[in-house]
Amino acid sequence: MQGILPLVRVQAVERDRCEFAEFYAAAADDCLRVVVLVVGNRQLAEDLVAEAFTKAWLSWRKVHQLDEPRAWVVRVALNSHVSWWRRHRREVALGDHDRATTGTEPHGLDSALMAALRRLPVRQREVVTLRLLLDMDTATTARTLGMPTGTVASHLHRALAALRREIPSFNDQELTR
C-alpha cells in the first residue's frame, strides 16, 4: 500500500502539469495582450504575466476550478502592476522608448488604436480589454474587476464611444482579432 501512494501523487502532479501546460498554451497570449494594453509597457507586462502564471501554477488546484482562470491570471498581473507602480512612482520617466510609433504593434493591433487605448482611463481600458480581447461576458468582467455589472457596461460604453470619437474608422471587431 505504501508503494501505491507515491505513484498516485506522481500521477496527480503529472496530470496537473499537463493541464497547466494546456492552459498556459491557450491563455498566455490573450493574457499578455490584455496586460500590455492596460499597463502600456510590453516588457513590464511580460514580467507581470510571467509572475501571474507562476502564481497560477503554485495554486493550480484552486485556479483550474475557477470559471475563468484567464481572468484570475490577468487580475493577479494587474494587482502586481499596482504594487509595482506604488514602488516605482517616484522614478523619473525617460520617455516612451519602449513603444512603437508607427505601424502595427507586436500583438497585432494598429498603433493608432494602441495609442487611443492607452489614453483611456485605466478602468475603461481594463473593461475593454477583458470584454473584447478575452471575450468575457459582463458578469465575469464585473467579478474579475470587483465592480457591479452596470458599472462594467457604463465603462464599456464610454470607452467605445471615446475610441470611435478618436478613430472615426474604429470598429469593435479590431479588438477581437
TrEMBL record:
Protein name as it appears in the record: RNA polymerase sigma-70 factor, ECF subfamily
Alphabetical list of InterPro entries matching this protein: RNA_pol_sigma-70-like, RNA_pol_sigma-70_dom, RNA_pol_sigma70_r2, RNA_pol_sigma70_r4_t2, RNA_pol_sigma_r2, RNA_pol_sigma_r3/r4-like, WH-like_DNA-bd_sf
What biological-process terms (Gene Ontology) are attached?
DNA-templated transcription initiation
Q: Which residues form the RNA polymerase sigma factor 70 region 4 type domain?
A: 112-163
One family from Pfam that matches here is Sigma70_r4_2
* MF (Gene Ontology): DNA binding; sigma factor activity
Q: Where is the RNA polymerase sigma-70 region domain?
A: 30-90
- Into which family does the record put it? Belongs to the sigma-70 factor family. ECF subfamily.
Q: Which UniProt keywords apply?
A: DNA-binding, Sigma factor, Transcription, Transcription regulation
